[in-house]
Design brief:
alpha+beta; Chitinase A, domain 3; Trigger factor, domain 2; 3 domains; 4-stranded antiparallel β-sheet; extended; disordered C terminus; chaperone; peptidyl-prolyl cis-trans isomerase activity; isomerase
Length: 480
């Protein structure tokens, strides 16, 4: 096998691989001889089928395996000999001349093909000794605890019958039955009986609840609404409908009671215990936001430390992902770029910068993690997989099996764990000072932070998997 580099431009490489006819024939003969002891053909004793006969029957199939093995061998040789780290799987291009291919398949001519590669850049890790970060921290205000108590009490409040002549008002609960129609015809999911509707809560289609204000028990009203364009049932989205709604009972809310009984309704022994639990939960939310802000500052600092060429395909894939989300959000909001005070061209340029930042930081985090020998345990992956499965109630088993059987999907579970562990490693190397801020300041610019936050994509995930392999060899991480 003769391998010659034909292109070295930036992060792109191309190699010409030539497998001469004699080598092809040797490999083909070896394959046929290996088949000879296995083949079971009528008229021949086991292991006695002539090689020439096997060649007529299976020569093309064996040669296909020979070619595939040669491609794999060439790829491994190229990577090993040149010390390359691939951004993507190699792209193989065979000759377009059919006669040339046919001759090679018969081992009567050389097989020549091109291997095109896109490699990861070499990253020299920067000195972070001058990086100083501020970590915003906020105390949980008593007002937040009180507001949470009010919400919990409201959701747990009782309702009592207002009487037959009482009119429904905002805040009341109606017990209703309804039949919905599209163009005069009933539709699936459009019928309900004994349904509770809290007037003004916004639980139903926009406009539905408002048309029931003032209704009395026993009254039937025709409610006319239009399903939202982004309604989950596609066959109903954007369509006008009518509902014949019968109110069977009008109920008024009982006064909200915040006491020990409320706490017991939520499984706690006293109001003080409930307040403590609420404060701790809000505190965890604050800590999560504080971590997010600190991480954003760290990534900003890293972004200023590194400049290197990015794999074009990685950037294009990341930009495609970002841009498709932008277009979906614009469509859902029924807005144009002009509405946002920009143009599509300018927006594309801005979001391409975001994509480039994500790829660059993903590669940097991956390189830091690899050099620091960051490892992911099997227990960590399992816990993350359990959390993911919990997001799909009733489908936990299917979700679990999907990830366990799909290595690429499982890599998406492992990558965030890898990233967070690398961030922890970096935070131990830089100066971090706590700064007390208000709740409002802690959560300010949350959307902007989320938009700029880097995610280690495919290249980083690959390096995360490499780190895992080191664990596998030491027996610390079971294969999944």
């Amino acid at each position: 096998m003769n391998v010659t580099e034909t292109l070295s431009q930036g992060l792109k490489r191309e190699f010409q691989v030539v497998l001469n006819a004699a080598d092809l024939k040797t490999r083909l003969d070896d394959g046929l001889q290996g088949l000879q002891g296995k083949a079971r053909i009528n008229g021949f004793r086991p292991g006695k089928v002539p090689v020439g006969h096997l060649r007529r029957l299976y020569g093309r199939s064996v040669m296909a395996d020979v070619v595939q093995n040669a491609v794999n061998e060439a790829n491994q040789k190229i990577v090993a000999d040149h010390g390359l780290k691939l951004a993507f799987e190699p792209q193989i291009k065979f000759p377009e001349n059919k006669d040339e291919i046919e001759a090679a398949m018969e081992a009567k001519g050389d097989l020549a093909f091109t291997v095109a590669l896109e490699v990861l850049p070499k990253i020299e890790l920067a000195d972070l000794s001058d990086v100083a970060l501020t970590k915003p921290v906020a105390e949980v205000p008593d007002a937040d605890v009180d507001a949470a108590l009010e919400r919990m009490a409201s959701s747990n409040r009782s309702f009592s019958n207002k009487g037959e002549k009482a009119k429904a008002e905002k805040g009341d609960r109606l017990m209703i039955s309804f039949v919905g129609t599209l163009e005069g015809k009933p539709f699936d999911g459009g019928t309900g009986e004994g349904i509770a509707l809290d007037v003004g809560a916004g639980q139903f289609i926009p406009g539905f609840e408002e048309q029931l204000e003032g209704a009395k028990a026993g009254e039937t009203r025709t409610v006319k609404v239009t399903f939202p364009e982004n309604y989950t049932a596609q066959h109903l989205a954007g369509k006008p409908a009518e509902f014949e709604v019968t109110v069977t009972e009008v109920q008024a809310p009982e006064p909200v009671k915040i006491d020990d009984e409320l706490a017991k309704a939520f499984g706690l022994e006293s109001l003080d215990a409930l307040k403590t639990a609420i404060r701790e939960q809000i505190g965890r939310d604050f800590a999560t936001q504080s971590r997010r802000k600190l991480k954003k500052s760290l990534l900003d600092a890293l972004d200023g430390k590194y400049t290197f060429e990015l794999p074009p395909t990685l950037v294009e894939q990341e930009f495609g992902s970002v841009w498709s989300q932008v277009e979906a959000d614009m469509k859902d909001a029924k807005k144009s770029f002009e509405d946002e005070g920009t143009t599509e061209e300018a927006a594309r340029a801005d979001y391409r910068k975001i994509a480039e930042r994500r790829v660059r930081l993903g590669l940097v985090l991956a390189e830091i993690g690899e050099q620091a020998k960051v490892q992911i345990s099997d227990d960590e992956v399992t816990q993350a997989l359990v959390e993911r499965a919990r997001q799909f109630p009733g489908q936990e088993k299917q979700v679990w099996e999907f990830y366990r059987k799909n290595p690429q999907a499982l890599a998406e579970i492992r990558a965030p764990i890898f990233e967070e562990k690398v961030v922890d490693h970096l935070l131990g190397q830089v100066k971090v000072e706590d700064q007390t801020v208000s709740r409002e300041a802690l959560f300010a610019d949350e959307d902007a932070d989320a938009a700029a936050e880097a995610k280690p994509k495919k290249a980083a995930a690959k390096k995360a998997k490499k780190a895992d392999k080191a664990e596998d060899s030491s027996g610390d991480d079971a294969s999944v």
